[in-house]
TrEMBL record:
Domain of life: Bacteria
Sequence intervals crossing the membrane: 6-24, 94-114, 121-139
Swiss-Prot/TrEMBL keywords: Membrane, Transmembrane, Transmembrane helix
Key word Membrane present: yes
Protein name, per record: DoxX family protein
Taxonomic path: Bacteria, Bacillati, Actinomycetota, Actinomycetes, Kitasatosporales
Length: 149
């Protein structure tokens, strides 16, 4: 494949690294003090309580609501780990799958908010594309260590 400046594998690495930067920005812009006190989970609980699908309400009430602090830490540090992993290209397929799953969870929770849907759909699409195209073949620790050949 002929491209200007970079080859196909390098452009896929750019896509992967850009997605990692997007996850890092998602982590960076959180008000950590409020978030870790459960503020983010309280906000999400309000959305889940009014959700049009009963399964989402029940699932949130059973899994997330009883553990607001733990879930706040899990979400925030998952976003940080995804960002760092994708930028460095470490365990890239795992990070891409985990990121797509997290985006799908956000997508289902925020099904009524079209602004959020655009971001989550775009990030999930990039994750699937980067996974299918094996974006860890260039500029990654996975490639340097010979992982996922």
């Amino acid at each position: 494949m002929q491209t200007i400046w970079l080859g196909g594998a390098e452009w896929l690495a750019v896509l992967r690294i850009g997605l990692g930067l997007w996850w890092l920005e998602s982590w960076r812009h959180k008000d950590k003090k409020t978030w870790f006190k459960g503020g983010g989970i309280t906000w999400a609980a309000g959305i889940a309580a009014k959700h049009r699908w009963p399964v989402v309400r029940r699932g949130f009430d059973r899994l997330v609501k009883p553990r607001p602090r733990a879930m706040a830490y899990l979400v925030a540090y998952a976003e940080l780990a995804l960002g760092l992993g994708l930028i460095a290209g470490l365990l890239t397929p795992v990070a891409l799958i985990a990121g797509a799953v997290l985006n799908l969870i956000y997508l289902v929770l925020m099904i009524h908010d079209w602004a959020e849907q655009g971001q989550n759909l775009m990030m999930a699409l990039i994750s699937v594309t980067a996974l299918a195209a094996m974006s860890w073949q260039s500029w990654s620790l996975d490639h340097a260590f010979g992982l996922f050949l």
